[in-house]
Amino acid sequence: MSDNFDVVIIGGGPGGYVCAIRAAQLGLSVACVEMRGALGGTCLNVGCMPSKALLHASELYAEAEHGMAKFGIKTGKVSIDIGELMTSKDDTVKGLTDGVAYLLKKNKVDYIEGRGTITGQGSVKVDLTAGGERALSAKSIVIATGSDVASLPGIDIDEKQVISSTGALSLPKVPKHMVVIGGGVIGLELGSVWKRLGAEVTVVEFMDRITPEMDGEVSKTFARILKKQGFTFKLKSKVTAVKKTKASVSVSVEPAAGGDAEQIKCDVVLVAVGRKPYTEGLGLEDAGVKMTERGQVEIDDHFQTNIKGIYAIGDVVRGAMLAHKAEDEGTAVAEIIAGFAGHVNYDAIPGVIYTMPEVASVGKTEEALKAAGTDYVVGKFPFTANSRAKANRQTDGFVKILSCAATDKVLGAHIIGADAGNMIAELTLAVEKGITAEDLAYTCHAHPTETEAVREAAMATDGRAVHM
């Protein structure tokens, strides 16, 4: 068993394991160090995948309870077995993490279970999970340790009454009332799970709208739809205290600008105020690796830190904290280390919120284009005018395309609709390859599909949408 590698990757999440596989494909000797005990990082273990399993299951429950009747399907009384639901979710997670372990083995990556610490240029010490240490040497080291839950001062997360996203994935019963602190992606997705299963959900958001980084028109539509589903929003508000008793939790909420506090009683509080880079115990300070003011690892345009041969990718560096962004960076840095020209186009990284309807976006928002002084054209098409959406009774939302007024290239796209997460792929390709709205408008789309709304929105940039 060799301790000398071309590349040692610390972290086995989406960025780390993809980097490991790509580097191995390029003929490099690779070790991947992971301390969790299961590969896949936050995404596969306590993030993207278990939340999607619960979102899907809760969506089926909601449809069976009150959505199928409009199609003439009578189901009778519907019930939920939380234990079975969690077992199904856990089975999904295990299958995926075992699959990643298989892929590393298949590609001859040395998977080392333990905590990795950089002890110098080209040196990594691993405190092995099974006991003992292992000293590794590498021509290149990649930091891919992901992120951890962020909290608020004075709020103690106990994962019982005051929970993080991790706790929200494993609640033993449906809460009567859940207060969600934060109106972003995580809070709205997990709030949707428990809302569908019967909880009252109140979302407290500091800004004047939910998903404040999203295109403003989409954000307003999204909030309106969620309110119709039963969400309660307290915008321009801040949580100043959370007090627990044996039976309940009291949340103090004040106007963001200051004012009298309101007390909200609930049985569970979900803290969903974002995530922070995980750099604890990596030895970065001793190794001389520079950090940003936000606690991120500072890198250049080729993902290299200020120390030659030490790279960083994913949630520990600048940019969106998204699994697919980390995967792209993992691929790019592996190719750079192997002597090729790895690259990531950050304008073409899609974002998706997996509620019902889904919300997806890529590229620029209207607000960003206005701030940059860019002349643009808007093309929009509602799902109320799409035949497949009408047949499926899923007509909430629209497709919105922003194209350059001078070149017609697609600069950004935003979708709120039942299958937005899949539909955004076509528009991501458009941004990546500099495709014009006219190119999309002249591309035949199968009928009847929701994707016809993409074509119609592209046609609308030139005022020639047919079905509205």
Q: What's the CATH architecture of the largest domain?
A: 3-Layer(bba) Sandwich
What share of the residues does DSSP label as strand, in percent? 25-35%
The unreliable regions are none
Count, helices: 14
Helix content: 25-40%
Quantity of strands, as a count? 21
For CATH, the homologous superfamily of the largest domain is named as: FAD/NAD(P)-binding domain
- Structurally, the number of domains stands at 3
Distance between the termini: 66 Å
Radius of gyration (Å): 24 Å
Shape: globular
Structural class: alpha/beta
> Can you tell me the CATH topology of the largest domain?
FAD/NAD(P)-binding domain
Describe the sheet with the most strands.
5 strands, mixed, barrel
- Kindly provide the name of the CATH class of the largest domain: Alpha Beta
Q: Any overview of this molecule?
A:
- With 468 residues, the protein is α/β, with parallel strands linked by helices.
- It has 3 domains: 4-148 and 276-344, FAD/NAD(P)-binding domain (3-Layer(bba) Sandwich); 162-273, FAD/NAD(P)-binding domain, CATH 3.50.50; 348-460, FAD/NAD-linked reductase, C-terminal dimerisation domain (Enolase-like, domain 1), CATH 3.30.390.
- It contains 14 helices and 21 strands.
- It has helices at residues 14-25, 41-46, 48-67, 82-106, 165-168, 185-196, 216-228, 284-287, 323-337, 366-372, 387-391, 420-433, 437-441, 452-460, and strands spanning 4-10, 30-34, 110-120, 123-128, 133-143, 147-149, 162-163, 177-181, 200-204, 232-234, 237-244, 249-255, 262-266, 268-271, 275-277, 310-312, 351-353, 358-363, 376-382, 398-404, 410-417.
- Strand 8, helix 6 (185-196) and strand 9 form a beta-alpha-beta unit.
- Helix 1 (14-25) packs parallel to helix 9 (323-337) and helix 3 packs antiparallel against helix 4.
